[in-house]
Amino acid sequence: MAAYKPVVVQACPKLGERITQDTLYWRGYKTPVQIKEFGAVNKIDFSPVPPYNYAVTASSRIHIYGRYSQEPIKTFSRFRDAAYCATYREDGRLLAAGSEEGSVRLFDISGKAPLRQFEGHAKPVHVVGFLSDKYRIFSGGDDYSSNLWDIPSSTEIVSYSEHTDYVRCGCASKVNADVFITGSYDHTVKLFDARTKSSVMTIEHGHPVESVLLFPSGGLLVSAGGRYVKVWDVLKGGQLLVSLKNHHKTVTCLCLNSSGQRLLSGSLDRHVKIYSTTSYKVVHSFNYATSILSLALSPEDETIVVGMTNGVLNVKHRKPEEKNEKSQKKRQPAYRTYVKGRSYMPKQEDFCVSKPVKRVLRKYDKLLRSFQSSKALDAVLEPPIMLHTPEVTVAVMQELHRRGTLRSALAGRDEKQVNLLLTFVARRVIEPRFTPVLVTVADMITDIYQPVVGQSAVVDKQFLKLKEAIGKEIDYQEELLEVLGMMDTLFATFTKKRDTCLEENKSNGLTEIIETNRNY
Q: In which region does residue 223 sit, left (phi positive, over 0), alpha (psi from -120 to 50) or beta (all else)?
């Protein structure tokens, strides 16, 4: 008796994922660590100096975490209500934060009680930051104002009331100690100079501005609002350079890597997109469990911290490169040993001993070998196989049809099994690689279960879906045939014109030759 041959599943080519240097780099982070906070994380800020601790603002507390700690090493909780936007100074020794009460508080990292408290806003303060001279603080609040404060004297230097809606984001220039920028829900971004009494530049973003970011050079400004991330040239008076629309929901936060060559944006659509700052194309993306409110990257790009709406802090650490090199060195000898002798070609005098290979049959192959057609079809109609490997289901149906047992395998099924069959056929019959087999299956199902049509609402619904799918596919095919006819007409016209031009050129060439001969 001949040995059983397993069912041949048709292999279809798959588009491989494009692996780039950015893909390898951004995949080089460990499995994330999840830390639960008391509320939505509205701000994450890394200390600019080693050991690069980071401040997390959530609910009415500010937690300071170490690089690898999962518990806060310090907590500032002297807030009556919510705290906002805790930001480090350039030397990492002071921390400023806004609050729901409308005050701005300044903390010493080594202490607990606030060093200074600045009163002047009438509503909650959502934006706080240090100017690059380290002695002044700017703030923005829900009272539409942007204020500048002097740290040594605890006084207000100047107040700007040019926005017409909540001021929710801001940043300071690292090049000029007098320049800072604020973004508002009035769709504008304003650039202020502390030496003037009004803003020096206004940029219209077009959507409520959630985040602004200034490049280290001070020449380019990035604003985020709505689904858009826009890049502006400040030196050219706020000229729009590029508008990016890669998110499906509101973009809430922006971040640059240490070299300034990659721009990161977080959104409520649960994705972090990474752009190249030369081409402004997405080079990589991260997917998270819930909507993202805040994002920060450590000064050495060693840690990515993402804050989400459900109060979860997601921390990813970069894998050490030295360990990767050692592991590669260990793998190389084992791989060479495994491949050794594979390419050896036997000579004429060699005696080849073939080692019998034991074949492990799939469940449907075992059932087909024992001629259990109906059970073999049931085995490939299981949801994991139907959804992820439909080619296996179709291959078994084709084998049953070849044997002449497909009709008997399809017959005698209850309402649930017929519903499963029709669902699969209606979904996959329009795929060109499955159409020849599934059209035959659909015909057989229709013939077998035609007498019971009208007895089950579920089965009737699936028959209607199958009819609708086939009808749409026929319409598409007719439209494609019309397009092909148009294209054939165009190609025929081009061919005729080309032939006519060639004949004219030939005739012109002959007349020129005759005229030259006459002249001679």
A: beta
